TrEMBL record:
PROSITE patterns listed in its UniProt record: SET
One Pfam family in the UniProt entry: SET
Bias type Basic and acidic residues, positions: 11-24
Organism: Saxophila tyrrhenica
Protein name: SET domain-containing protein
Length: 405
């Protein structure tokens, strides 16, 4: 299942720009620097506005229906390596970028503190090898500053992509702020080389578009810890209602919700452990049988829906429920869950999911479930025929016996 985690918060903005979204794509047409800190986007559904707490953010201009595609953008810069970004990686990609892409990249905000000492050293080491700077100290200094800024921009705004496709920075996605209960799902499609953002619930005109940078199915402390790596404390409504004291009664709605998030995390990890995809560590107890796994998958669906976590975690939970139902031969249930998975997947990713291959996408899984149901029907019909024959044979035998008497 696809999962996207964004590296950087992208909070304060310093540039103006123009983005055109006339045909569902988002070609970058022009970015121009100004002093006001605003950014103009031409987009049928979205606009950039100042938020009360997090600088600029993207907002819905009109009511947006669940499943609507809000963004479909090519990366400004994509580094295929999935390890830590090196200056050499960045420099190679910067050379390939067009002037408009470079300008748009330099327009994104950056936090210099996110650069490691090693990365700064790499930039300096490279710069001193350039002959033209041998006698030009100012030129050398300016070059190092520009390159370090590019590196910091990448570290601040890059998104880790699915399928080990590397990390990338996008023109508008990098402007979306974080919430622990996001209203959109973001995904990189490696076959199309585009990053899509879909509404996972109805969004009202004027609402801010919010994605999640972390795994939001955690207790407050875990979410807080993960977000510290991005240099900020979460200002989402859920985190704002958190009660810091654990000594008082734990009956507040916020605490109940936090406990539900923690439960989601445990159940999810236990099911991954059951599937053999994650190590059975940290005291996580995997289900002992498919029947127990089915119960947990159904619990997970309920908990995710209650928490409004309607992204691909929910699609994964439906898949598990469908798979375990199929193992039990409860075909109607298996088909029902597979259809629900397909509906959530379409809402989160759109229809272009062939890149997942095999039974990776919901459509393939649904086909498999339907084919199994069909085979089962054929088997059932054959069995019914055999039984009818057997009944007839026994009836005839009984008749013969009766005649003999
Ligand atoms: Zn939060």
């Amino acid at each position: 299942m696809a999962l996207v985690i964004r590296n950087g918060p992208g909070r304060t903005r310093e540039r103006h720009g123009v983005v055109d979204e006339s045909d569902g794509k988002t070609p970058l047409t022009n970015f121009a620097s100004t002093k006001t800190g605003n950014l103009t986007v031409r987009h049928p559904l979205l606009e950039l506005r100042l938020t009360p707490t997090t600088g600029l953010g993207l907002f819905a201009k009109c009511d947006v229906k669940r499943g609507s595609r809000l963004l479909s953008e090519a990366p400004l810069l994509l580094i295929p390596s999935s390890g830590p970004t090196t200056y050499q990686d960045l420099q190679q990609q910067l050379e390939k970028a067009s002037p408009a892409e470079r300008e748009a990249l330099y327009g994104l905000q950056h936090d210099p503190e996110l650069l490691s000492r090693n990365q700064v050293r790499q930039v300096r080491n490279y710069a001193v090898t350039i002959r033209k700077f041998a006698k030009d100290k100012d030129g050398l200094k300016s070059f190092v500053q520009t390159q370090a800024k590019a590196m910091a921009i990448f570290e601040t705004n890059a998104t880790k992509l699915v399928n080990k496709s590397g990390s990338a920075v996008f023109p508008l996605y990098s402007r979306i702020n974080h919430s622990c209960t996001p209203n959109v799902y973001a995904n990189y499609n490696p076959s199309l080389r585009t990053h899509t953002v879909h509404a996972i619930r109805d969004i009202e005109a004027g609402e801010e578009i919010l994605t999640t940078y972390i795994d939001s199915s955690q207790f407050f402390a875990g979410r807080d810890e993960d977000l510290k790596k991005y240099g900020f404390e979460c200002a989402c409504a859920f985190c704002q209602s958190h009660e810091p004291s654990l000594l008082g009664p734990t009956t507040s709605d916020a605490t109940k919700r936090d406990l539900r998030r923690a439960k989601i995390n445990v159940v999810k990890r236990s099911l991954y452990a059951f599937e053999g995809e994650h190590a059975r560590a940290d005291g996580i107890c995997a289900p002992r049988s498919p029947s127990e796994a089915l119960d947990r998958a159904q619990d997970l669906i309920k908990l995710l829906r209650e928490e409004g976590l309607l992204g691909m975690d929910l699609a994964q939970a439906y898949r598990w429920a469908s798979k375990y139902s199929l193992q039990f031969g409860v075909l109607e249930k298996a088909r029902d869950y597979a259809q629900k998975e397909a509906e959530v997947e379409l809402c989160c990713l759109g229809p272009e999911t062939d890149y997942m291959g095999g039974s990776g996408n919901a459509a393939s899984w649904l086909k498999h479930v339907q084919a199994t149901a069909e085979k089962d029907k054929v088997k059932l019909r054959a069995c019914e025929k055999r039984m009818a024959k057997e009944v007839k044979r026994m009836e005839k035998k009984a008749e013969k016996k009766a005649k003999k008497r």
